[in-house]
Amino acid sequence: xxxxxxxxxxxxxxxxxxxxxxxxxxxxxxxxxxxxxxxxxxxxxxxxxxxxxxxxxxxxxxxxxxxxxxxxxxxxxxxxxxxxxxxxxxxxxxxxxxxxxxxxxxxxxxxxxxxxxxxxxxxxxxxxxxxxxxxxxxxxxxxxxxxxxxxxxxxxxxxxxxxxxxxxxxxxxxxxxxxxxxxxxxxxxxxxxxxxxxxxxxxxxxxxxxxxxxxxxxxxxxxxxxxxxxxxxxxxxxxxxxxxxxxxxxxxxxxxxxxxxxxxxxxxxxxxxxxxxxxxxxxxxxxxxxxxxxxxxxxxxxxxxxxxxxxxxxxxxxxxxxxxxxxxxxxxxxxxxxxxxxxxxxxxxxxxxxxxxxxxxxxxxxxxxxxxxxxxxxxxxxxxxxxxxxxxxxxxxxxxxxxxxxxxxxxxxxxxxxxxxxxxxxxxxxxxxxxxxxxxxxxxxxxxxxxxxxxxxxxxxxxxxxxxxxxxxxxxxxxxxxxxxxxxxxxxxxxxxxxxxxxxxxxxxxxxxxxxxxxxxxxxxxxxxxxxxxxxxxxxxxxxxxxxxxxxxxxxxxxxxxxxxxxxxxxxxxxxxxxxxxxxxxxxxxxxxxxxxxxxxxxxxxxxxxxxxxxxxxxxxxxxxxxxxxxxxxxxxxxxxxxxxxxxxxxxxxxxxxxxxxxxxxxxxxxxxxxxxxxxxxxxxxxxxxxxxxxxxxxxxxxxxxxxxxxxxxxxxxxxxxxxxxxxxxxxxxxxxxxxxxxxxxxxxxxxxxxxxxxxxxxxx
Length: 765
Description:
Strands 4-3-2-1-5 form a five-stranded antiparallel sheet, with helices on both faces. About 65% of the residues lie in helices and about 5% in strands. It is mainly alpha-helical. The protein has helices at about 20-60, 65-105, 110-115, 125-145, 150-160, 175-185, 195-205, 210-225, 255-270, 270-290, 305-325, 330-335, 335-345, 345-360, 370-385, 390-400, 400-410, 420-435, 445-460, 465-520, 525-545, 550-565, 575-595, 600-620, 625-635, 670-675, 720-730, 740-765, and strands spanning about 680-685, 690-700, 705-710, 715-720, 735.
């Protein structure tokens, strides 16, 4: 037996080691050795798979350019692999060695240092950097959640040997966040296309991050052998396994203090979704009434089913649903909304029947929490079937997910509490993709088939692995990104085309206004009037578009209009004739230059100038054959090509061509809603008696204020002024779709429905 005065080798959480001491330094050295050796093996194993992965992708590439990207990436990886491995391992070793010093330095900022990649503000970040950050962030979050138990123990023990520095998932020098950052730093050695880098990040996740539990187990075992917190309990309260929770230093029962602190922090961190969930539980409780009011079944009470029994029964129902769909594809989508709603409502009864067949006796009811979950999921899918944001066909398809989502809610009660739950994000993603679907915009059935594929895979493959929701969500996002890139190109072309037409129309109006203003009350000969309103007006439009209204060319073109009009004034005196003769050479030069720019052929120019010469000779009092004078005055056929269309309406010279008058429309709720629309908003337009088209607001013209709408493929559906759109909405021909997430809208609607029921019950009482 040891003497009471003999120092113990066991180090508790309330004690601290000095990392600069002999024992602390030795332990740190051991941790560095373990991490270095283990990570060396893992990173080597990962790079062994990179070549094969890139070669497979090159073989399946959609075009030669993409194939070359992958082959170039293979060559670059082979060349730079040693450098990347060295940099990664050196960075990890440096982080381990420098951690205590950097966190004790007054100039350091621990908060900033502990921020994981992707948590900083992503402002003005290049697309490639954003893609890389998102990949890293996703990798970190997934592995921190998966490794909660192992990380907790490593965090506590490293905190002791680092002299009591608070260590959590975000600043652990060998945690997923730090390792991902180190690998990203090492990847700077690689001059490869971002597509290649993203493939390597996926392989890093698969072959390095997925094996971190072995590293953490080895580190924990080494520190336990050294007496560092050998009695530390790894079990965490279920609600305490959140990222970013800290440790609590306490004397006495240190571990209990840490766990109590973790639990308190997790509850304090719950967002408004958790408050909403608590409201739902209260409303469900009020709806049930007193527990003892339930009648016990004949023959005495029957034990309520366990969660495992519920999952087993649901798996049988799910298998039946999946095989039914496989036998008769599309049956679920051909059912009427009434039949689908009935199926959703009957799931609880079907579940009890299935439980009865599995247990040999049908339970009268299930546990209160399970019943709330069943009812809540049922109401969620009833909402989906009533949600006008979703096309009818998509409502029916998503309604098939009720059983998988009920299983997910029983396996993980956080589904309704956390907005970032993978199952919740997948359903929101499916609804968001489905919102813009229409038969017209999805003629190739790509979106329809993708959503159906996700639904089918959940029905067929989901057992108890919540990770399937993350995987399917990633696939859906990749599909959406590809579709969006393709649509963005088409959308950009539509916007550019519309912008070009508006610029042209604006230039035509400006040219017409300038000419009409200068003509004023003058009565011009038909020949001169035709040249101005057709030939020269087109030249003004072209000059405005090419040179702009502040250019010398535009000012010279307007000066010609003034001179051309002035040349038609009566000539009575010798001075008038002298002035006109001085003007004519300039008029001819300007006409030749201007008309050549608007596609006049040389022969057309000569024919027009010949008629003008005849007109001016007559103006100057020279002898001109009567027939030629009459032809000029009547101008039944102008010497202007038919391709040169008039810019100015010659039948309404007093009208202001710039004003695009709209019907007066008083400020209404519909108009206010239209003015609040932002690009990206979706609307549904009725295109016929039983047909509709869903379109996204793509662009609002800064010139005309018109709203341009495109479908999900980026093709133009229509463009409207605010007043036209408000009129369509008020007349029921258009409808603004809700932009909020499906899950949020559903929960709000469920709370409203339950609150109304509770209020009605209270009134009756």
